[in-house]
Amino acid sequence: HVQLVESGGGSVQAGGSLRLSCATSKYTYGRNCMGWFRQGPGKEREGVATIDSSGRTIYSDSVKGRFIISQDKSRNALYLEMSDLEPEDTGMYYCASRADPCYRGDHYYNRWGQGTQVTVS
After folding, report:
1. What share of the chain is helix, strand, coil (3-state, %, to 5)?
2. Which residue of 44, 58, 67, 96 has the smallest Cβ count within 10 Å?
3. What is the CA radius of gyration of the chain?
4. Measured CA distances, 107 to 66, 98, 100 (Å)
């Protein structure tokens, strides 16, 4: 059973930075797409960034230039470096995975973590 566990969320002021991490209990990065999604208050869950097994990344327009997704396969870890945070970035952030290739919609992803809360004020 593959488990994804997010960490690193918290409360920051606008303009601040946070680094989210996603750890997996089993090596899943061989031929998998890994992604970060978020759900803000009263909003639907949306894709933030994805990275496939070749390291190709895709970002949503709202975070492009501010967020960086990366992975460390030796540590079975996925990261999201968030900078210049805005109140609109507030939400629960989820790590998810699926077999390559990456797709934009969250319904394509079959493994999910429990989420980590990010609050920007």
Report:
1. 5, 50, 45
2. 44
3. 13
4. 25, 10, 14
